[in-house]
Predict the 3D structure of the following.
Amino acid sequence: MQDADVIIIGSGMGGATMAAQLSPSGRKILIIERGDHLRPSANDRDDTAIFANGHFRPDETWVDGDGQPFNPGNYYNVGGNSKFYGAVLIRYRKEDFSELAHLQGSSPAWPITYDEIEPWYARAESIFQVRGENQGDRTEPVHSNAYDFPPVPDEADIADLRHRLARAGLTPVSLPLGVDVERWLAHGATPWDAFPDTCSGKMDAETIALQSAMNAANVFLMTNTKVERLEVDAVGAVSGVVVKHADRIETLRAPIVVLAAGAVNSAALLLSSRTETYPTGLANRSDQVGRNFMNHNASAILAMHPFRKNNAIYQKTLMCNDYYLTDGDKGPPLGNIQLLGKISGTILSANTPLPKILANWIAARSFDFYAMSEDLPDPESRVTVKNEQIHLSWKRTNWDAHQMLVQKLKRVLKKAGFPIVLTQSFDKRTPSHQCGTARMGVDPTTSVVDTYCRSHDHKNLFIADASVLPTSAAVNPALTIAALRRRAADHSRREECAAGTRVRL
């Protein structure tokens, strides 16, 4: 018996966008989500609850490459990690789709070009109501359409910071953001970066894509349901999705299955679904599932002047790409610089050994930056599953380039009038755009999915999350995930119309 025409596992940026794209088809679409809806609560804008007490972090333990357990910062809720994201919806640069030499290796070329994905970037920007402008950034690739909305405005102290950075030699430009600032601030005077969205102030996966999908009578959502494994039939098709719901195990069936559980959990699910026919897991004849895990090299940089306060509330409105394609002296690419949401004393003391009184003093005077550099794919950086436990062995790459980026930024900030600059790198407990564990490619021996995100091994299985990204680039991946999903769904719909069949997406 068939439970749906399409089963989508995960309601984050990939799964929700796929559901929205398919909902006009009239087919029964069932979305399975491990978590539940985030409901408004007193914890939503409480930095102590979020950053000191870890209120929203999962009750889950993974094991790192040294055999040490740790609590991952991935979230299980409707909308996935996008409910907590910084809402930066930026395109990969055109050069990111080609082979690119870095200080400590090369990132491989994608099997598609920027020009092929550009129309889908434009559509995704429109759907997610991206606020931005295309002015001044020499790395910005060609856009076929202007943004539908102007950029989120700088607060007064951030406008002054923009001028200081420009005078110091950088090229600050507006971040493309999916945020309704007025709606966000109406529910509390806080940043949105890393705070949960329960007021629809962020254009996240639930607020935009999933809500659009759920407006259709043919789309259904199962929450608090954990997928245990996938089943395959004798011809290699995914024939069942085994789930645990309300302490009961059941098997759901659909002719099409879309996996969108995130780079770590999607890989873990495929590996956990091994059979005698597929002893290394599903979709894994290439032995690439779980490999090439990437997580951006990232650091927080706090610039301050002891006699000047920063009164910004949300802060996160600008970025600099001066070192994105070169170090500024014909050297290797270093990465992206953007503002963080405004850091409080509570956030600072929760993540450093600083006493609360000193943390409050620093936070009141700091301008908070996020430096992000590309992590290169390494087959030994991987997800494995042992005794039903996720093991994540992250082999960080290109770290020297990231340190160069941080040092260059520190020098510029001191030139811009900030005599004190503090830095703190992010570790495995902070997911910095995990990706790459089911890479896209044209060769089934070296990749997991084709250029439309269909499994090479199981023709009715699609992967719709950051797993498929061949490279991490050095910018936030959410928009690229959404664009790829829309491109894949559109291709399959056109294939279906040409063939006169309903077995495709």
User: Anything to note?
Assistant: The two ends are 19 Å apart (CA to CA). The domain at 6-38+64-499 is CATH 3.50.50.60 (FAD/NAD(P)-binding domain). The longest strand covers residues 225-232.
